[in-house]
Structure to design on (371 residues):
């Protein structure tokens, strides 16, 4: 018996439409009303295709799992309503899913990972450090206080007009930054790292974005070009931005490691760092985190790239985990609502800040940073 059905596994035609919308919006991200309309237009076909490929009928399903929080309200509404109609029609148990919990536990589908483990979620909408203690048991160590790294990289790409760059015209913003950074010299530009005075595990990217924008404006003046034209040093800026984002993420993650081992939340002998989310597919950031994990005797795991970005498989898997554990399996859907904003687990970020752990200089620990 197939244990979960998910409405959010979309066919290629849907993604082609979505990518067209993203290109037209020039790295500005998803347009909520357009996303809602595309969900409505495709959801019926999505379910039919998923059932056809799996070779089962709705009647054979053990339960129906659906994202209810957090996310775009208009899209959550379409998926939840469709799922509740199926639940009512076929009298199936319903499993509401927290989107970020699903990201955090995806690795357990592809790797054997025991609880607890440290998890870093990096995406266009989130930047979160947490400890996964169980299927529905999380400790929140820190999160972005403003924008997420993926959002920041997209905005920098837009400001650099990378859609006009011959190597990047068909790439998403963050991917374009990563591509150009490979042949750039990050040492040509230095950006002050965020939140150095705060000994916590929170993140901030809006201030860094402002510094980058100021540097771009200055370079445009020096080169005598207008906004919208490509700077000659664009690859160097891309490399410097990517490096600053990576080091900021690494520093906060390092503190999380130290906090967890100091407070015996994680064992110092067999601890694991899991990194997931769309930005986790950035190979430069991933390499830095891998090196950090190695230097601190943490195992380092990432789901495959196709499962790092938002996908239906991770929601179905979270449904399976909950079904097996008997957690959050509902036989009545009265009062079920979608929640555009929802915290992850129990917030212990104040305790992290109170511990005021000083992170050792990274260059001594991680040669990657000095290379």
């Amino acid at each position: 018996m197939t244990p979960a059905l998910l409405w959010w596994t979309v066919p290629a035609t849907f993604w082609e439409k979505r990518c067209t919308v993203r290109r037209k919006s020039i790295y500005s991200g998803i347009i909520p009303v357009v996303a809602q309309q595309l969900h409505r237009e495709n959801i019926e076909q999505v379910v039919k295709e998923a059932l056809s490929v799996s070779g089962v009928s709705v009647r054979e399903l053990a339960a129906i799992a659906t994202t209810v929080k957090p996310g775009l309200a208009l899209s959550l509404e379409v998926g939840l309503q469709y799922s509740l109609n199926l639940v009512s029609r076929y009298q199936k148990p319903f499993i509401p899913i927290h989107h970020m919990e699903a990201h955090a536990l995806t690795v357990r589908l592809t790797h054997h990972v025991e609880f607890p483990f440290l998890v870093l979620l990096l995406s266009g909408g989130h930047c979160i450090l947490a400890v996964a203690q169980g299927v529905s048991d999380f400790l929140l160590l820190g999160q972005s206080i403003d924008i997420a790294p993926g959002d920041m990289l997209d905005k920098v790409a837009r400001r650099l007009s990378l859609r006009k760059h011959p190597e990047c015209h068909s790439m998403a913003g963050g991917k374009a930054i990563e591509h150009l950074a490979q042949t750039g010299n990050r040492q040509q530009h230095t950006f002050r790292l965020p939140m150095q005075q705060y000994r916590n595990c929170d993140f901030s990217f809006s201030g860094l974005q402002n510094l980058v924008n100021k540097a771009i404006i200055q370079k445009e003046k020096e080169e005598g070009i207008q906004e919208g034209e490509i700077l000659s040093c664009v690859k160097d800026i891309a490399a410097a931005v990517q490096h600053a984002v990576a080091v900021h993420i690494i520093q906060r993650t390092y503190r999380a490691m130290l906090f967890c081992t100091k407070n015996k939340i994680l064992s110092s002998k067999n601890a694991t760092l899991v990194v997931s989310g769309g930005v986790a597919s950035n190979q430069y950031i991933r390499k830095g985190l891998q090196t950090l994990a190695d230097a601190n005797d943490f195992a380092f795991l990432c789901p495959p790239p196709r499962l790092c970005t938002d996908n239906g498989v991770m929601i179905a898997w979270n449904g399976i985990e909950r079904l097996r554990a008997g957690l959050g399996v509902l036989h009545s859907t009265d009062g079920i609502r979608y929640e555009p904003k929802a915290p992850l687990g129990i917030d212990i970020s104040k305790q992290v800040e109170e511990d005021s752990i000083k992170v050792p200089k990274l260059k001594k620990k991680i040669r990657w940073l000095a290379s």
